[in-house]
Specification:
18% helix, Rossmann fold, 20-stranded mixed beta sheet, 711 residues, alpha+beta, elongated
Amino acid sequence: MSPLFCLATLQVAGGLSGMLDAWLTRIAERQWTARAAEVASIQTPDDVARRQKYIREKFLASLGGLPEKTPLHAVLTGTLVRDGYRVEKLIYESVPGFKVTANVYVPLRQTPPFPAVIGVAGHSNTGKAEPAYQSAWISMARRGFLVLALDPPGQGERSEYWDAGAGKSSIGIGTREHTMAGLQCLLTGTNIARYEVWDGIRAFDYLLTRKDVDGARIAVAGNSGGGTQSAYLAVAEPRLAAGLAGVAIDARISDDVIDLTGSSHTARLGHVELGARISPAPGAAPGVISALSQLSGTLGAQAPSLAFLQPFIGSAAVLDGRVMAKLSFAGTLGAPVLTGTLALDAVRIDMPQHALALRDGRARIVLDERSLTVQSLAIRGGEGQFEASGGMRLGDHAATLDWRAERLRLFNRPDRQLVVSGAGKASLIEKRLSLQGELKADLGVIEIDEGAAERLGDDVVVTGRANKPVAQAKRALPLDLDMAIDAGERFRVRAKGLAAELCGRVRLRTREDAEIVAQGSLETRNGTYRAFGQELVIERGRLLFDGPVGNPGLDVRALRKNQEVEAGVEARGTVRSPVIRLVSEPAVSDQEKIAWLVLGHGAASTQGAEIALLRAAVSTLSGSDSGLSVGQNLARGLGLDEVGIRGGLGGHVVAFGKRLSDRVYLEYEQGLTVAATLVRLKLALTRTLSARAEASPQGGRVGFGYDISYD
C-alpha cells in the first residue's frame, strides 16, 4: 500500500460545510487589506492618476478586452409625443446581430443641442419600462436632458432565451437570464459584463451621431444593477463628461450621537469620502443639538481634472489640472476647527486669444487651526517659471505672498509677446491689498494694427442708439502699490505709425488719495514715426513721469532726414496738454518747414497736386486724442488761433490768425505758389457788419473793405 494512504486520518474541526466560502473570504480579505494600504498611500494628484490608469487597465483586462466597433445599424421604429418631451423607439446593434432596444426621451421645451444621459436600468423584469425608471428619465427630459434609456441583456425587450410558444422566457426573465448568459460566457473565456459595458459604449457612439446632442456633455446614470453598469462605464468610457457611479449617505443615531458617512464618485468630479460625528454638548438635555455640540470627522476629495470649473470661468480661458484635498474637522458646530492639506498638480491655463499658455502648475497648501500656509506654488510659461509662497492668519485675515518670476512667458502671439522676470511681495492687511516689487521685460513685442477701428468720443451721441450709461464716480481702490517696471533691452513697439525700441524704468506708487503716480522715464531707441505720408526719424523721444501715471511729460523731436532742410515736429508739455511746434535744421520759416516736412522741398516750387497734399496734411489729419486737427494743434503750440492752407494771393497761402479781442482779428498770409505776403485786420462793428484793412509789402498796396451779413 502506498505510504500516502498510511497517514493518520485528517481531522477537520467543524466539518466541511462552508470551507470554500471561508477560503474565498480569506483571499478577499487579504486583497481588501492590500487595497486599503494602496489607497492610503495616495498623497498627490499624480498618485491618483497612476491609480486610475492601473484600475482601468486591470478592469478592461478582466473583461477580456472590448469588441471591435462595427456599424450600429440604428433604426427608429416609432415615436410617442407627450407633455414636454418625445419618446423615440430605438434599436441598434452593439455587435453584429446583437440588438439593443432603447427609448430616447427628447425635450420639447428647450433648444438643442441638449446635454445627454445614458440611462441604464437596474434589476427589473421590464428593464427600461419600469415605472420608477421612466419617472426619472421623464423628469430629466422635461428639464432639458436628452435621455437614452436602454434594456440590459435579459430584461425588458431583450430576452435571450425566449420561448415563442409559451410567450415567455424559457428560464425566467431578469437575473436568471443574467446567470445563464454569464455561465455560458465563462465557458467561452469571456463574461456578461463585457457585453453590458459594450452596449453602453455604443450608446455613447449613437448619441454622437445626433445633431440635437452636445457631445461634450454626455453622462451616465443608474441604480442597483444600473449603478454597477454606471460604475463600469465610468471606468471604461473616458469620453463621459460625468458618470455618477455611486452616491451613498448613511446616518445613524445612538445615545444622541449622530454618525454620518457618505461617498460619491463621478468620472468628472472624482471621488469624495465623508465621515463625521456630532456628539451632545456636555450637560445638554437629551435629544438637543446646539452650536455647542461636539464635532469631529474627516473629508477627502480627489478629482482627476479641474475641467468641472470651466462653466464658472467661461470661454475666456481654459483650465485643467488635478486636485486632491484631505480635511479634518473638530471643535463644535458653532465654531468648527478645520485642518488639512490641498494639492494641485499638472495645472494648465490657456487663453488662446492672447496666446497665453501656462503649464505644469502645482501647489501645496496646508491648513491648521490658526493659519493657511502656501508651502509652494509654481507654474511654467515658455522656458520660464513663476513661484510663490506665503500664508494667511485666519484670525485677522492678514496674508502675505512672496513671488518670483524668471523668464516667464505670458504672451506669445506674433504681434504680442511678453517675457518677464522679477520678484516682490503681495500682502492683504485690513482688506487693503499691497503690492511691492520689481518687474523687468526680458522680451517685449507690441504691434497694433494700423487699420484698427477708431472709437467715437464719449461726447458723441448717435440718434437711435441707446444712451450711454452715466459714468459713476470712481471709488478709490484699496491698493497700496510700489512697483518698479523696467522695459529692459528688448522691447519693441509698433503702433499708430510709431516703430521703435523702448527702454527705461518707471516706479509706480499710490498716493494717500489712492491715485497712481509714477516717477522715471521711458525712451525710444532706433525709432521712426510715420506721419504726413513720410517716415520721420525720432532724434529724441522721452516720456517723463513725475506725477499721475496717465499724464507724463513729453520730450519728443522727430525730423524728416537726409534733405537740404530737415524738417519735423517737436512736442513738449504733457500728454494731456501738449505743446507742439515745427522745427528744422537749418532754421527756416514755418511755411517752409511744412513744405519741407510734407513735400521734401521748399514752398516756392509747390504746384499742382502738392497743394492739395499740403492742405490735407495740415487741415484734416488727427493730431491728438483731443480731436483737434494738426492745424489747430500747431496754432495752439504757436500761441495762435489758426494755422491753415487756403486759396489767396492768386494761388495758395499758409494762413496764421490771432484773435486780439472779441471784435478784432489779425491774419497773416504767406504765398506758397507766388512770392507774396499779406497782413489783414478785421473789425466786427455789429453782429452783421464788419470792416477790414489789408496791406502787402509787394508794391506798397493798402486796401480797405467791409462785409455785410444778411442772415
